[in-house]
Amino acid sequence: MKKRGLKIVALLMVSVMTVGMMAGCGSKKEEKSDGGKTTITLGMWDVKQSPFYDEAIAAYEAEHPDVNIEVQITPYKGGEYWTKLEASAAGGTAPDVFWINVLHAESYFDGGILKDLSDVAEEVALEENYPEALVEAYNFSDQQIGLPKDFDTNALWYNKDIFDKAGVEYPTDDWTYEDLVATATELKEAGLEEGVYPFVCPVDFQTWYYPTVFANGGWILNDDKTETGYADPKTQEGIQCWIDMIDQGLSPSSSVLAETSADTLFGAGQTAMVLAGSYMTPEYLTNDAINKSIDLVEFPEFNGEEPNVINGLGYAVFEGTKHEKEAKEFVAWLMGEEAMKLQGEAGTVISARNDAQHFFADSNKEINLAAYTNHADKAVPLPVCKVAAELYDLELSKLKLAYAGEESLEEVCKELKISADELLGTME
């Protein structure tokens, strides 16, 4: 794990040297292409957002006839996007503008390939117009190296057909965790069809147990990212609540969920309820097996708190871009009202800009998409550090033993804290 982190930083440091040598040779001179236009490349990974970019880029190019925007889509799966980005950065050929997430922001900042966008942040009034949690996620050493593009939160989806057949009332926005358990029990006792479950409880940090851990007063990382909070009883209570639902037969076993994801079960009509990030909305709504019978409500309250975790993507500009002025101007436009409105209306992601978040909720009047945006300001930022990916993998490997009933959660968390704190030590 430590070697992987060092490899990334080393690779990115190569890009700094490469860019420096290119500058010394005069290779960063502005270049024109496409009939005298300046071409700006945009790196991204989600093809589902292409319709938004087609519309946005057409509008931008109409306003900026001397600029041509070229989109480069690289799949996220298997780390392909990041592998290609790191390799192109090392060679000085990374996209001028590209997507970044909070998991990679700090390592890429340390690697020196992210241009400081503090001037753009001031131009778009970032602190006034965007959620504080997302702004801070891309700020290191007083440099704004990323600008929030969109975010995701979590909500409870349900299948009305299953509820109707069981004669059970639908969930509501004012539900508590106790209501969730009570209704799941009612569904079970009503006698669901074979292979259909009331709910699902996978070992999932962002959508399931982080929200309840934080709502319960627990914690994952301390402020200086030197210690983990797995040994805290409040943290453990926020995880145990989901294990309890498995033990009560309200969810498939961990072995079943290891083979079939919660999203797959919901998409196949095999579970009455599921928690899901807002990024799952397009997939659910294009699934003909369920899209006529589903709706959603807010994440049920836990311990009297609104439990949710906020995460999102940002725009970054390559330190070695040959078109800094044009790249920054394009990013500033993408952060503006027009582009954020277009993005929200597309209904694929929630625009990060405060006054544009409602466009996602309004993009489909037939379902309660506002469940994702109603209390976004209360959501806790996803805990991240330089070894976040390794930390999440470690959590999974340890916690699955508790979810399977092979070890108590208390014992698992005791072991997890030791290993996780050692992992954090590799960042020093």
Number of E-type strands = 12
Structural class: alpha/beta
What best-fitting shape do the alpha-carbon axes yield? globular
Please work out how many helical segments DSSP would assign: 19
Please describe the biggest sheet, giving its number of strands, its sense, and whether it closes into a barrel.
7 strands, mixed
Spans with pLDDT under 50 lasting ≥5 residues?
Answer: 1-11, 13-30
Could you tell me the mean pLDDT? 92
Radius of gyration of CA atoms, rounded to a whole number: 23 Å
Strand residues, percent: 5-15%
Oligomer designation: single chain
Helical residue percent band: 40-55%
Distance between the termini: 14 Å
How are the elements arranged and paired?
Blueprint: H1 2-24, E1 38-44, H2 50-63, E2 67-73, H3 80-90, E3 97-101, H4 102-111, H5 118-123, H6 126-129, H7 132-137, E4 139-140, E5 143-144, E6 147-152, E7 154-159, H8 160-166, H9 177-190, H10 205-215, H11 233-247, H12 254-259, H13 262-267, E8 273-277, H14 281-285, E9 294-298, E10 309-317, H15 324-334, H16 337-345, E11 350-351, H17 357-362, E12 380-381, H18 388-403, H19 409-425
Parallel strand pairs: 1-2, 1-3, 10-12
Antiparallel strand pairs: 3-10, 4-5, 6-10, 6-11, 7-8, 7-9
